[in-house]
Amino acid sequence: MGHRCRFFAPNRWANLRAGRPAATRALRPPEYHGQTDMSFVNTNTAQAFADLRGAHYTFPRAQKLREGFEWMLTDYWSKALLGRRFEARGLLVTGPSRTGKSAEIEHLLAKVNDGETAMPDGRPAKIVSVMLAGTMTWKDLGVHTLREGLHLPTRGKMTQTEIWDMVGFQARAQGVHGIHYDECQHIFPRKSVEGRAMILDSFKSLLKNPDWPLMLVLSGVDELVGHIASEEQLAYLLRPVQFHEIGLQRPEDQQELNSLCFAYADKAGVDFSGLSSLDFFRRLACACGNRWGLAIEPLIDACVAARNSADMALTSEHFCRAFTARTALAPGYSPFSIEKFEPLFKGEKMFELWENKRAAAQR
User: Fold this and answer.
1) Which residues form the ORC1/DEAH AAA+ ATPase domain (predicted)?
2) Is 131 helix (H, G, I), strand (E, B) or coil?
3) Which of 78, 98, 201, 298 could tie 291 with a disulfide, CB 3.0–4.6 Å?
């Protein structure tokens, strides 16, 4: 498949600073022991998927996000310690869909909420997460925050002010110091200039609440940057963290994709070195629509297929089968099997294909 540019086999897993054996112990989920009459479950395959899906690969961007969380929490802690009124800070995490924003934030929130970070009020740090699903009003978001973030169903008719007053009261009562709003761009479409200004000012009021200021993590696609930038004071209080697509014109992305493939292959116990070339990375990037989050899915499928077949090494055929099984394209029709694949497979079209399949599966 063209000229092969070899790469080294790196080792970068989350919590794997002590080497590969320690990493394997840290990431292995509970193993299945014994056999029951589950004719529809291949327990060996299920265990292989669980091993790989349960692992967390540490991208360089994760360190930047962690630094943002540390900055936000340190700022909050130092101000709360003084016992005076203060304004909290937050993060603005943006990038194209399926680049791993939600997964990285979720991973860090689990660490923040593990009880190890004590706050000046004597309670452990706690940041809840709320997913915005479709267009909603500020009142709708308040109801959604109570139900999903604070687990408090609303009853009867309440005004917008009453709802958000309850959010602040319950956050303080439950020891919630911050809220992550995912897919935050959904609060803005089809809003008038005045409506958008009101929403931006309302987010700012959560950071500046005199009784219980809340840290905010707002995440979404790149258009969210433009909305936030239109409110200068809010933009000042939010530290930006940018996620990007796979860009193989950048040498660091070539090495990162190589590192990702080796890490999963090593965990599956198969050899990736035969595919470690820029030509293959172009094919993989194309197949996943240049999205880091999507690249992991066919990679896991290929690793499990190789392991189930007792193959010692990954091949293009493993990836081809994984790709066509996921996308429902004809067997053998993939960027991994066609020599001149670029005219037939466009990155953005591949992303749309993945998203359409995902949407169909959720119906």
Assistant:
1) 86-224
2) strand
3) 98
Burial 14-24 (b: 16+ CB within 10 A, else e): eebeeeeeebb
Task: Answer whether 239's CB lies under 8 Å from 89's CB.
Answer: yes
Nearest to 180 by CA among 157, 206, 200: 206
Domain boundaries along the sequence of the chain: 60-242, 247-362
The 238-242 sheet, strands edge to edge: 127-131, 178-182, 215-220, 90-94, 238-242
DSSP 186: G
Mean pLDDT, range 338-352, rounded to an integer: 87
Specify whether the CB–CB gap between 58 and 12 falls below 8 A. yes
Non-local (6+) Cβ contacts of 241 within 8 A are 61, 64, 65, 68, 91, 92, 93, 94
258 phi/psi in degrees, rounded to 5: -60, -45
**Look-up of token digits 């000042």:** 236
Residue 134, amino acid: G
The tens digit of pLDDT for each residue in 206-229 reads 999 999 999 999 999 999 999 999
**DSSP conformation letters of 258-302:** HHHHHHHHHHHT-B-GGG-SHHHHHHHHHHTTT-HHHHHHHHHHH
Please report the DSSP string for 5-68 in residue order.
--------BTT-TT-HHHHHHHHPPPPP-S--S-TT--HHHHHHHHHHHT--B--HHHHHHHHH
Tens of pLDDT, residues 54-84:
999 989 888 999 999 999 999 999 999 999 9
Which DSSP category does 118 fall into? B
The H or E element containing residue 182 is strand 178-182
In words, the CATH class of domain 60-242 is: alpha beta
Rounded Cα distance, 183 and 10, in Å = 33
